[in-house]
Design goal:
Layout: E1 2-11, E2 20-25, E3 28-33, E4 40-45, E5 50-53, E6 55-60, H1 68-71, H2 77-87, H3 93-109, E7 112-120, H4 128-139, E8 145-151, H5 161-172, E9 177-179, H6 189-203, E10 206-211, H7 222-231, E11 238-242, H8 251-263, E12 267-270, H9 272-278, H10 291-296, E13 301-303, H11 320-330, H12 336-342, H13 345-350, E14 368-371, H14 379-382, E15 388-391, E16 394-397
Parallel strand pairs: 1-4, 1-5, 6-7, 7-8, 8-9, 9-10, 10-11, 11-12, 12-13
Antiparallel strand pairs: 1-2, 2-3, 5-14, 14-15, 15-16
The chain binds zinc ion.
């Protein structure tokens, strides 16, 4: 008797439209076959629908989410930060947990198996945002794997030692990565990155920086980040999110920067939704990292949502497939296989989660969703509902689970 069996599902990306049975035991795939004779304590028939790998959301600010109704949508990044800054001192632990919980539940309904959230740390909010994020990580541990980035906002002066101590304290409490932002730091950016990487080495954490979230071509911190990553021996453990100014760097310099970040094994996370909304208001430039060139240079490029219905981005629903679809539009990418990988295996790699390329095979982690579409449909193109979601071999959303706390719609 297996823990769980999904029957008649068509695994994505296998090139075959054959309906397969998938049996799961102890959180892992036990067997995949056209017919599995053994029964499951719980069984679902996917009816020939598409089976997706567990989706991964590598960049989400839960502490800012769902504040658009209070703060409105901003006109640029500085305005968004200013709007959020007005409210930060008043955000309570209860409010932070409630809004975070709402968005994580949306993510689970979209088939997200792992997500990384950034939590602000400075002397204004102290460790409140981190504590809320760690509470959410614990609360959802049996439904989605949450990573927390202890994130120093751009407003913290480099010599604010109290804020640095709080950042280290946050990492000691269980945050997975340290983060900050380079774009508005000017000549201090190198010193900031050095301190961040030193701290990561000292506490054994990963690094996830907002790098050059600007269209000022003079702001070019990626070569220095690549140098520091190699100096500190952090290859494969550093993520550069945004990388907007790389899109307006002259071609020769851009190629050299891409070579350096590939050599340092820095992961890049493109965040098309927020960049399209906030960047380039005056210039008309769109501000999304040059994904095709990065991929050609063998850089791992993943995709994230960044913001959900807040001043930085008044839309969004924590569906990685939506972010992937917009990445395809903004980056003029037609490769739907890559786009789905950008919100699954590639995002997992950026988060340090090892995933087998054979995600639907015996021994693999059993985190999937059944999409309400056929095996020939492109999930990035059609954004199908995902009525059945499995996390580590356990059903966490099943058909009939409402998306709102409302009664079912009936005929009269
Ligand atoms: Zn961000």
């Amino acid at each position: 008797m297996h823990d769980l069996v999904i029957r008649n599902a068509c695994p994505w990306g296998t090139g075959a439209a054959a309906k397969m049975d998938i049996a799961m035991d102890g959180g892992r795939v036990a067997a995949v076959a056209v017919t599995i004779a053994g029964r499951g304590r719980e069984e679902w028939d996917a009816g020939g629908r598409l089976l997706l790998p567990g989706l991964v959301e590598p960049h989400l600010h839960l502490d800012k989410a769902c504040l658009a109704d209070v703060l409105g949508g901003a006109v640029d990044l500085v305005d968004a930060r200013t709007r959020f800054a007005r409210l930060r001192p008043a955000l309570t632990p209860r409010d932070l947990v409630q809004r975070g919980r709402r968005v994580i539940e949306w993510a689970i309904r979209h088939g997200v198996a792992a997500l990384r959230t950034h939590a602000d740390v400075d002397r204004i909010v102290g460790l409140r945002h981190v504590e809320a994020a760690l509470e959410l990580k614990e609360m959802f541990a049996d439904r989605v794997a949450v990573q927390v980035v202890a994130f120093q906002p751009a407003s913290v002066p480099l010599d604010d030692e109290a804020s640095w101590r709080m950042l280290e304290d946050a990492l000691g409490r269980g945050c997975d990565a340290v983060g900050g932002t380079t774009g508005s730091r000017g000549p201090e950016a190198s010193a900031l990155m050095t301190r961040m990487l030193e701290l990561a080495v000292r506490v054994g954490s990963m690094v996830d920086l907002h790098v050059d979230e600007t269209l000022d071509p003079a702001v070019q911190n990626l070569p220095e980040l690549a140098r520091l990553t190699r100096r500190f021996g952090l290859q494969g453990r550093v993520t550069a999110s945004h990388c907007c100014s790389l899109s307006v760097t002259p071609a020769a310099a851009r190629a050299e920067t891409i070579r350096l970040i590939a050599e340092a094994q820095i992961h890049v996370i493109a965040l098309p939704l927020t960049n399209l909304y906030l960047q380039g208001r005056d210039s008309g430039l769109r501000g999304v990292a040059p994904v095709a060139e990065l991929l050609a240079g063998e850089v791992n490029v993943a995709c994230g949502s960044d913001n959900v219905q807040d001043p930085f981005l008044p839309v969004g629903n924590a569906d990685p497939l939506l972010a992937a679809q917009v990445l395809g539009l903004a980056g003029q990418l037609a490769d739907s296989r890559y786009l789905l990988e950008s919100v699954s295996s590639r995002a997992a790699a950026a988060m340090g989660i090892s995933v087998s390329p054979d995600w639907c095979t015996a021994g693999a982690a059993a985190s999937f969703s059944v999409a309400d579409c056929g095996p020939a449909d492109d999930p990035v193109a059609c954004l199908p509902p995902r009525p059945l979601v499995v996390f580590n071999g356990r059903v966490v959303r099943k058909p009939g689970d409402g998306t709102h706390d409302l009664p079912p719609i009936r005929t009269h």
